[in-house]
């Protein structure tokens, strides 16, 4: 028994091989980058859908206003067609009298002959029937006919006045709707101008001079390649600068250069120790 020997290493537990620490560190980083990419794509899709919905709503409003304008134009045409006979009717009513009425009311004087015996009495003649009409009555028109014509003229005048007032109201409504339509068209044009954009790529370095990008100029300030943050200065005039401090990778930075201009969007897609690259979305109206 004293001559037996045992290999003690065979009974000891084998140590596990060291794990690859670099692989474990890259997995969370890849997961974070994937989530950031998915969020950026979702934001872009949401932004495009919002712009499309705003444009569709503006087009619907313009179409409704156009339909109302066409309907008001039809009403104006209808009132004009019914307005012209009302003006000519008094002239027709006051025109030449009817031939039957003239023939019935005009009396021609008759000559009456009297035969008497020759005596000392002078001959007597019968006075002719008076055919005079009251003062102010047109020749060949009786008093009842004149009253009827006067009533017709008064009714036609009232109808003409009512039509004129209605036409003035319609013209005022049409003018108001035309002003609203012009304002809506201007708003739609502004929305369309802001929705049409063009991406201008840029690349700024630590040791390079400011780089012009579209309507502005960018200057490198600092960058953190580990934390993926950067700081740049945006010049929109000779001495005015907007400093974008501690911005992250793929972050959409929205800023306004002037008061009455649409906003600009800056996105950094690459951050190194001495370099920042990305693109600037500029509306087509500012190029």
Structure description:
The protein has two domains: 22-99 and 143-195; 197-286. It contains three helices and eight strands. The protein has helices at 21-93, 99-105, 143-195, and strands at 197-205, 211-213, 216-224, 229-235, 241-248, 253-255, 264-271, 275-283. A hairpin with a 2-residue loop joins β2 (211-213) and β3. α1 (21-93) packs antiparallel against α3 (143-195). The longest helix has 73 residues, at 21-93. Residues 86-97, 99-106 and 127-134 have low confidence and may be disordered.
Q: What's this model, at a glance?
A:
The protein has 287 residues and is an alpha+beta fold.
Give me some keywords for this one.
287 residues; 2 domains; alpha+beta; 3 helices; elongated; 46% helix; four-stranded antiparallel β-sheet; single chain
Q: What characterizes the major β-sheet?
A: 4 strands, antiparallel
Task: Note the total helix count.
Answer: 3
The helix fraction, in percent, is: 40-55%
The total count of strands amounts to 8
Give the overall silhouette: elongated
Strand line-up in the sheet with most strands: 1-8-7-6
- Mean model confidence by pLDDT: 75
Order of helices and strands: HHHEEEEEEEE
**Helix/strand/pairing category:** alpha+beta
Q: Return residue spans where pLDDT drops below 50 for at least 5 consecutive residues.
A: 86-97, 99-106, 127-134
What integer value in Å does the Rg equal? Answer: 50 Å
Strand content: 15-25%
Distance between the termini: 98 Å
